[in-house]
Specification:
With 382 residues, this protein is of the alpha/beta class. It contains 15 helices and 15 strands. The chain binds iron/sulfur cluster.
Length: 382
């Protein structure tokens, strides 16, 4: 019998310095902290090898933070631990997030030798002024150097993360960033809008940040869509564009409601009909791994997925994809008619050109994608 597929996410919560907008679980490591965390993480991964014995892993994603702060030896230990704890598909997608300025050709070659076949670089902007405002550790040229080093090392699947709506950015400078990225020719581009999150430096400085206005932000989103589509990238999810055959298999699993196990502080899992996440408290996490007492004490959330939640999540996640909800699939899964259930609520969004609803699917238009959170919270009542 064919084994069920599973994804693995591993969180590395360390960065060289903290970017002004970042509310991810990451910090500058203290001396010796990476080794201690890595040890805890590997104990955690090994502990789940039995629970995942009946699954085959087809995607692995090491994210952060900046996973490439691990040196070659540490990364080798981690990747070997993943390989010996789980059964990996031969051509599993194996991604590592990297920050420009933390990698060179030798390091990248070593990653390739460990079976890592996809690199995701955080660029955010090709303007040095904007990069400085964000608090990034690299310049535009350093990014280009890291990108070229990844190509020279042999990586054939590279993602570049970009942001719009950042301090000092204009429609012109964003267009220049897109052109810069296109010239490098990555297989995948992610484009996120800046959100000012509580607890960040940007939040404290929010009144004085020189941010582009709402209209310019929308222009940038539209520009990303038209420019990247014209360059041969498919806009397959709200924030993601890929060359044919290079959509992120790991990220698709989140939107297609497929199983994954997360390891490390603040990592999320969806497994055996439960969603849960670990605490972001490093000390509590490491102590529990070193001296196991009560795993549930290091969960920050845990919920069983009942039919009602599953249906809501299904609509919410599928609608993130440009292909949207396939009406026959929805009917087969939930035994209901999508148009009957949501048609009335969707009417004004269809009339306004935000949503397309025909006999086959329901999906956002580009205009609708931009305000998808608002529309989804309206139709799903949350
Ligand atoms: S590199 Fe990424 S994870 Fe680290 S501080 Fe900056 S945005 Fe946050």
């Amino acid at each position: 019998m064919e084994k069920e597929k599973l994804g693995i996410y591993v969180h590395i919560p360390f960065c060289k310095s903290k970017c002004g907008y970042c509310d991810f679980c990451s910090h500058v490591p203290a001396k010796g902290e990476i080794d201690r965390y890595l040890n805890a993480l590997m104990l955690h991964i090994q502990d789940f090898s039995g629970a995942a014995a009946n699954y085959i892993v087809d995607t692995v994603y090491i994210g952060g933070g900046t996973p490439t702060l691990l040196d070659k030896k540490q990364m080798k230990l981690l990747t070997e631990c993943i390989r010996t704890s789980f059964k990996l598909e031969k051509d599993a997608e194996f991604t590592v997030e990297a920050n420009p300025g933390t990698v060179d050709k030798g390091y990248l070659r070593a990653l390739l030798g460990m079976g890592i076949n996809r690199i995701s670089f955080g660029l955010q902007s090709a303007s040095d002024r904007e990069l400085r405002a964000l608090g990034r550790i690299h310049t535009r040229d350093e990014f280009a150097e890291s990108f070229k080093a990844a190509r020279a090392a042999g990586f054939c699947n590279i993602n570049v993360d970009l942001m719009y709506g950042i301090p000092y950015q204009s429609a012109e400078s964003f267009a220049e960033t897109l052109a810069f990225v296109k010239a490098l020719d990555p297989e995948h581009v992610s484009v996120y809008g800046l959100k000012i999150e509580e607890g960040t430096r940007f939040y404290r400085e929010r009144e004085s940040l020189p941010l582009p206005d709402e209209e310019t932000e929308y222009k940038m989103y539209r520009k990303a869509h038209s420019f990247l589509e014209a360059a041969g990238y498919k806009h397959y999810e709200i924030s993601n564009f890929a060359r044919p055959g290079f959509a992120s298999r790991h990220n698709l699993r989140y939107w297609l409601d497929e199983k994954y196990l997360g390891f490390g502080v603040a990592a999320h899992s969806y497994f055996k009909n439960q969603r849960y996440a670990y605490v972001s408290d490093m000390e509590a996490y490491m102590l529990e791994m070193e001296h196991p007492q009560n795993m549930s004490a290091i969960l920050s959330e845990c919920s069983d997925i009942d039919v009602f939640t599953k249906e809501t999540e299904y609509v919410m996640l599928r609608m993130r994809l440009f292909d949207g909800v396939l009406l026959h699939e929805y009917r087969n899964t939930f035994g209901k008619d999508f148009a009957k259930k949501y048609g009335e609520k969707l009417r004004r969004y269809v009339d306004g050109g935000f949503v397309k609803l025909d006999g086959v699917r329901c999906a956002f238009t580009v205009k609708g994608m931009y305000v998808s959170n608002y529309i989804l919270s309206d139709i799903l009542d949350f």
